[in-house]
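Here we describe the complex-level prediction in full. Unlike the single-chain runs in Section 2.1, the four entities below were treated as one system.
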Amino acid sequence: MADGYHHGNLRQALIDAGIKLINRDGEENLSLRRAAAACGVSHAAPYAHFKDKEELINAIKESVTEKFMKELEDAAEGCESADDALIYMGSAYITFFSKHPDYFVFLFGKQKITAHTQMNKENKNDYPPFLLIRQMYKKHLEEKNIELSEEEQEIGLIKVWSMIHGMASIACMKGVKTSFNWKDPDLRLLL
Amino acid sequence: MADGYHHGNLRQALIDAGIKLINRDGEENLSLRRAAAACGVSHAAPYAHFKDKEELINAIKESVTEKFMKELEDAAEGCESADDALIYMGSAYITFFSKHPDYFVFLFGKQKITAHTQMNKENKNDYPPFLLIRQMYKKHLEEKNIELSEEEQEIGLIKVWSMIHGMASIACMKGVKTSFNWKDPDLRLLL
DNA sequence: AACAATAACTTGACGCCGTAAAGATTATCC
DNA sequence: GGATAATCTTTACGGCGTCAAGTTATTGTT
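The structure predicted for the assembly as a whole is:
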């Protein structure tokens, strides 16, 4: 990989540049040409690594999802009980999107969430953050010896996740003011 | 308003065409030029009625929000108790976005929600659907003689709204399957 | 009725965008 | 070392938002 013509690691550079551009200018201002320019490369160079713009965007989503997952895992680490972990994960979930409001619509808006995630066999609830919350929720039921039917479990899980997810969504809406500091890392209003 | 040169009611026609285009092709395929073409008018004609694309989009958002509000009000109508009304409004909230998944990111994604809504004096919680839920929630507290501090009320309200809103958001995510039929008009899992 | 002023619309142009095709340059492999 | 493949550049196309200038219809004034 000599200097000049060949970049060396353009694929990853484009992903990193894309994240920076989204953080600075918002998703709608991310273009293939800008990302290419940020990497010091011609406007058509990305097509050697990505089929189209959507493929670059999905790669960026994967990368952002990894960061998101890491914060959730870090929040759960060191908790004594599963319901403690649930609360801290929920707080981290909300805090993450409070700090990066653009990421919410970027990750969950537009097309299928599965486009940038691996599918499991049943194609069900396969989004990694949801899997994390699901397994922590089940662990919590075990710890507290709460016995629920399959459907009751599913309902309880959906309630927990939707409340957390909904708060994250609301925290991202500029112009809707609440009396909370969503960036507080310990939001004990949950559950 | 003779035939030919002058359209007569281009402003509203553009809004209607915009809604149709979003319903058929999704938000990302809505362009000023397409909307203009759908109205049989030149590509720059919209600029007589809208400052830029954003202004047209905000007008469309207002129109969609009105439809949304109407479904919420219809759901609450005829309910005997306020908490019954809350449940039916919540169901309608989720059902609305289940039927039109594109509307969720269209209404709540991107820029400020206040751009297409009137501001109240305090610039607080002024999004009409939230106001509706807020007042119904307070009515419910009164009916049941539940006395809460201002902050406790705010927390309770946020919990209810975020759970409904979160379920709506989840229902819109293609690729994340749950065992619920979100289009069921009576989702009694709530609250 | 005539005419000025204004609103509504068209035409043409600009730069940015995504993408495809063809050519240039470098890396890889037998 | 020479073929092959991967990577990158250049050129080109149509669609986009937007602006400027010109055209046509409507409205208001006398």
